Amino acid sequence: MKKFPTHSKKLKDWVNKMVRLCQPDQIVWIDGSLQQKSQIEKEAELAGEIIRLNQEKLPGCFLHRTAKDDVARTEHLTFICTKKKRDAGWTNNWMSPPVAYKKAKAIFKGAMRGRTMYVIPFSMGPIGSPFSKIGVELTDSRYVVLNMLIMTRVGTAVLRELEKTEEFTKCLHSKAQLDINKRLILHFPEDNTIWSVGSGYGGNVLLGKKCLSLRIASWMGRREHWLAEHMLIMGIEEPNGHIEYIAAAFPSACGKTNLAMLVPPQGLKEKGYRIWTVGDDIAWMRIDSDGSLWAINPETGFFGVAVGTNSSTNPNMVETIKKNTIYTNVLLKPDGTVWWEGANGEVPQEGIDWQGKPWRPGMQDTNGKPIYGAHPNARFTAPIINCPSASFRLEQHHGVPISAIIFGGRRAHLTPLVYEAFSWQHGVFIGATMASELTAAQVGKIGQVRRDPMAMFPFCGYNMADYFRHWLDMGKRMTKPPKIFQVNWFRIDESGKFLWPGFGENLRVLEWILNRVNNKVRAWETPIGYLPYPEDIDLTGLALPHATLEKLLSIDKKEWLEELKDIKRFFRKFKQDLPKELWQEYEDLKRRLEADA
Ligand code: OXD
Ligand code: MN
């Protein structure tokens, strides 16, 4: 029996069992020390897994390149493995647990021969907080270890916490052969287990993130009466010094990270507004003894998209990634720094692209398509504490109180800039019918509407109809529920130009939301919800014609009635499982629109 630094029998037994399966040459327990971290960095560098960047310009920063066909989450290889297929629901891929374990075992068997198995005890949320959950990830990837050290709380202190209850999510990962044909991302919520094999891409292998904090945690949240959501959390400090916190869900490519750390436009900065970033991707929310909803960000880092990040889109992120950051699939410049399409400064005249090949601007492949220096999904992993707007309440065990929940999507037409739900139940309907239109950056027909309820379509670890029911139940359990809003930064005019400037200016909309939360402004009751009176949105310092604001706030009932047809098709996919309250909201909206037509 090997000597392990824990007295948890359950943990030791499980590690031993997985060792017998994967057969690593040695086992290293991650203790969270800087000394061990720098040792692993050195080994990874020697093995060619990471490149140490220019340490004067980018201290503590590294570059990593993934395999060419391992650059994004592979949703078609991601499964929810529950005893009953029904419990995974139609929005998830399903495999029965015995079949899934058998398939994956065949790939894991002996996969760590000649390699080290790292044992990473990690806590999602502050160690010991009533919100937090513990996981242990076994991996043969040093890149995973180094990323987990940024994204989660790792080490011996977590082991001591684990030993109190022996409750933890069993997370097993192996790169195996990095073969897309032998890749599986499996979730066993009934066993509190995640198995990921054949990938080295963050979203598939940093198992604390999407796998635990969304898929497994959403399952736990339903049982334990809390919410695990794909939401940013931010604090908005008002001119009087009071800070209100909001949580917001957006599908990918809608600017969630930029919103979480926005810089107030001059007009609002002068008024005294300031932003505090709590998280950019995941919110765990519980009802506290005051009857309201409190949230933590279970992570300690950002795993953000590099392409398009610059000083005008996200100045705070530009500061955040200047040190102790791991870059993945970006361009390496001759001076040992990095670049990506849409980065600050000049386009470099040469470099090494994300596939490790020499690169010059304007290069094309044999089909005449541009060769990019960075992969479009190139990422950085950076500690939240680097962020100039990082909240001082990141370690708060009870999190922050949430005054408003915001749902957003990318809609060229239809959805106004902002509106407020009539009630919690109506808000759940708005979240459940959230959608985004495909842009040129995605595969599919431009403009095609894709439903993404609460931005959780790829992340809900159980039947989404039950998830809607859970949201409805949570509303009933709260005496002071947050108000729910929908926003849309992406409405366009006849010539295809965005009507709203977005980015930092979005704070003007958040200000209206907070004014509604605090009953400071009236609102216009429409069939879809409460809309702002144009004069209640502060446009100081923004040259936006009044007519444009009116357009942003207008409702086209014909378009809404068309939308209802699509919502109906979507809801029908849930068959008899869809809560009747959502059909009721559908009928009520239809009736209101028709009465008003
Ligand atoms: C992410 C995602 O990486 O939502 O956060 O895909
Ligand atoms: Mn995300």
Key terms:
597 residues; alpha/beta; Phosphoenolpyruvate Carboxykinase, domain 1; Phosphoenolpyruvate Carboxykinase, domain 2; Phosphoenolpyruvate Carboxykinase, domain 3; nine-stranded mixed beta sheet; binds oxalic acid; binds manganese (II) ion
Q: Please indicate the percent range of residues in DSSP E strands (runs of 2 or more).
A: 15-25%
Low-confidence stretches: none
Structural class assignment: alpha/beta
Q: Choose one word for the global shape.
A: globular
Ligands = oxalic acid, manganese (II) ion
In CATH terms, what is the fold-level topology of the largest domain?
A: Phosphoenolpyruvate Carboxykinase, domain 3
Count of β-strands? 31
Q: Mind telling me the C-alpha Rg?
A: 24 Å
**CATH level 1 class label of the largest domain:** Alpha Beta
Largest sheet: 9 strands, mixed
Question: Number of domains in the coordinates?
Answer: 3
Mean pLDDT: 96
**Helix count?**
16
Specify the CATH architecture of the largest domain.
Alpha-Beta Complex
Helix content: 25-40%
Distance between the termini: 76 Å
What does this entry look like structurally?
The chain is of the alpha/beta class and 597 residues long. The protein folds into three domains: 9-30 and 72-224, Phosphoenolpyruvate Carboxykinase, domain 1; 50-64 and 301-388, Phosphoenolpyruvate Carboxykinase, domain 2; 229-299 and 394-596, Alpha-Beta Complex (Phosphoenolpyruvate Carboxykinase, domain 3), CATH 3.90.228. 29% of the residues lie in helices and 21% in strands. Strands 1, 4, 5, 6, 7, 8, 9, 10 and 11 form a nine-stranded mixed beta sheet that branches. A hairpin with a 5-residue loop joins strand 13 (231-237) and strand 14. Helix 11 (424-432) runs antiparallel to helix 12 (464-477). The N and C termini lie far apart (76 Å). Residues 73, 203, 252, 281, 303 line the site of oxalic acid.
